[in-house]
Amino acid sequence: MKFNNRNVFISDKAVIGENVKIGDNTCIYDHVVIEDNCIIGNDCIIGEPGNNYYFKDTYVNPKTVIGKNSLIRSHCIIYAGSEFGEGFSTGHRVTIRENSVFGKFCRLGTLSDIQGYVTFGDYCWLHSNVHIGQQSTIGNFVFIYPYVVFTNDPHPPSNICVGPTIGDFSQVAVGTVVLPGVKIGKHCLIGAQSLVGKDVDDYQLVAGNPGKLIKDVRDLKSRETGLSHYPWPYNFERGMPWENIGFDKWKIANGYEND
Amino acid sequence: MKFNNRNVFISDKAVIGENVKIGDNTCIYDHVVIEDNCIIGNDCIIGEPGNNYYFKDTYVNPKTVIGKNSLIRSHCIIYAGSEFGEGFSTGHRVTIRENSVFGKFCRLGTLSDIQGYVTFGDYCWLHSNVHIGQQSTIGNFVFIYPYVVFTNDPHPPSNICVGPTIGDFSQVAVGTVVLPGVKIGKHCLIGAQSLVGKDVDDYQLVAGNPGKLIKDVRDLKSRETGLSHYPWPYNFERGMPWENIGFDKWKIANGYEND
Amino acid sequence: MKFNNRNVFISDKAVIGENVKIGDNTCIYDHVVIEDNCIIGNDCIIGEPGNNYYFKDTYVNPKTVIGKNSLIRSHCIIYAGSEFGEGFSTGHRVTIRENSVFGKFCRLGTLSDIQGYVTFGDYCWLHSNVHIGQQSTIGNFVFIYPYVVFTNDPHPPSNICVGPTIGDFSQVAVGTVVLPGVKIGKHCLIGAQSLVGKDVDDYQLVAGNPGKLIKDVRDLKSRETGLSHYPWPYNFERGMPWENIGFDKWKIANGYEND
């Protein structure tokens, strides 16, 4: 049904692995490496050249690597000069600028906008329409929900660029803005539509505009069960590496004894 | 000017009605039914297959129906397995996932993102960049403004999925987040940039972060006229079925006597 | 690498200047004028016809002018009937409706959505995902950050349409909603995630939901330097016409003596 090889452009300087499927109307530019078993949807641009391409004759497209078993859905634009670990997957119309580094098994939702010069760990799941400013640093197992924005200019407009830092296992709920340079610890929960202007310690729930410390996430009870839901890895394992093993057993074998 | 039939792909398992126009670079996949007099813009994908298509050889694209007289603008992606009543119209770059059911004469603005497994009544108008999470249920004549988000996971991340429910004639203003499972009654007005975490009774105005009950919408005066604007159907009829008839007369003939 | 002239459509009623590059899969419709040295990316639609095109046989596409040295990145949709001064540049997936007038050297970020019937001065920089409603009026040197929304209907739904007005040199930070008809003066700073419902005098800092007057921007000290950052033109010149000249010297020569 799809993958008819209609109007596909692949640079002769790209490297395409085994069993890769590429959708109609997609362009793959110089020095893109697509590893085995990837699926690239329709109407994508992979290896989009940076600004210098338009203005410097000597421009050479930097290397881009899409890890094995990745699934990039239609209408995505990925700039040259980024790297994605295995099992990367996206929704539609994602934009990712240069110098973005993603670990393994990350997921980006439809319309997400990654501004480049960012680092993500493994198993980061971004929902639809997340905006990550330059110089953001995100740990492992971080979930970010729709319309969250990470900012980086404390006195706009200026030449300062300091993004937020988010620790492992933290969750940032829908519509929240994280201000420049804010450090959020591990296992935190930031409530919906918060404005986070101060650092957040490990295991804290912060919510509101301006964001305030509400309580320790471990004291937050599920409305459904009356039990603690956080730290969430004990209660959610779909798609996580501790699926069918349990977080307790997994964490000891994987260097997360203290989580 | 448009509709030159350039680089169009139509599955031989699709059914295209009379007088349908299809824009350049558009793909229409298996088991899509496009009824008479529809216009589909450029660069669209109609009947995008679900995730299983990539991984299961036995995948069959479910049926998709675009009702007669619909207008889908360019760069939209509509997954297989949804149904749209007559007179459906969209802006550009709309994404609609599977199992979305829309009544008659609904409109979706540019960049709207419908996550699937949702139900809309008739004459729902969504402005640009609205995000509707799974398991949301929306009545008739509901207007939703830009950057509104309907959420569904009360304790992220979890396996619980309970979307909001919105009654007939309600309005949700720009930038508002409606939290999981919240029930909003009929003829409500939710103010701009609110965070709605509690149920809202019929005819209530709720606003703020966190959202608070402000007053009955019938006590809200127009700044321009000094008169009540709500219930709005008495004061707005452009594109509505009571246009040129008046809401009073229409509602009696159409089962809305109590509105 | 790019600009292979693959699947490009250019109307014979369009006028293309010297040294213009047009990306693959792009359509340029009737009465579009693209001035010299412009770059148009892949998958764009320039001169998209308005609604009447679909329904009136007598429709004639109005004139669209893209000023010289402009750079429009991929997947943008620009409706017929707008005008862009020289040096216009956009990110990806920008949508611009009819009757939008932009001065010189304006920049629009990825996913921005300009609803038409708006006026921008020179050197306006909009970051990603900004939504500008109809009837908005924006001065010169105005910077607008991600997820800002300018609204225009005070009593939704109604037939009233009154957009905000923003003075020269003002800054609107991320996630802010500006309500219908609000007038923001010059050299203002609107903080992140604010809801601005009242007029703002020149040089004021307003923040919060609801937005409140915080202080004069000239009393705001940089956390880095301890010095005043505002009025910002004294401290930021990258890409501005006073680059390498200084704002003091430039403003006298250019009619901004009072700024």
**Residue windows where pLDDT falls under 50 for at least 5 positions of chain A:** none
Structural class of chain A: mainly beta
Q: How many beta strands in the DSSP annotation of chain A?
A: 30
Shape of chain A: globular
Please report the first level of CATH classification, the CATH class of chain A.
Mainly Beta
- Sheet bearing the most strands of chain A, described? 10 strands, parallel
Number of domains of chain A: 1
Assess the beta-strand content of chain A as a share of residues.
Answer: 25-35%
- Helicity level of chain A, as a percent range? under 10%
Q: What is the fourth-level CATH superfamily of chain A?
A: Hexapeptide repeat proteins
InterPro entries (chains A, B, C): GMPPB_C, Hexapep, Trans_hexapeptide_repeat, Trimer_LpxA-like_sf
Pfam family, one (chains A, B, C): GMPPB_C
Family (chains A, B, C): Belongs to the transferase hexapeptide repeat family.
Domain Mannose-1-phosphate guanyltransferase C-terminal (chains A, B, C): 6-102
Could you list some keywords that capture this structure?
homotrimer, 259 residues, mainly beta, UDP N-Acetylglucosamine Acyltransferase, domain 1, 10-stranded parallel beta sheet, 9-stranded parallel beta sheet, 2 helices, 30 strands
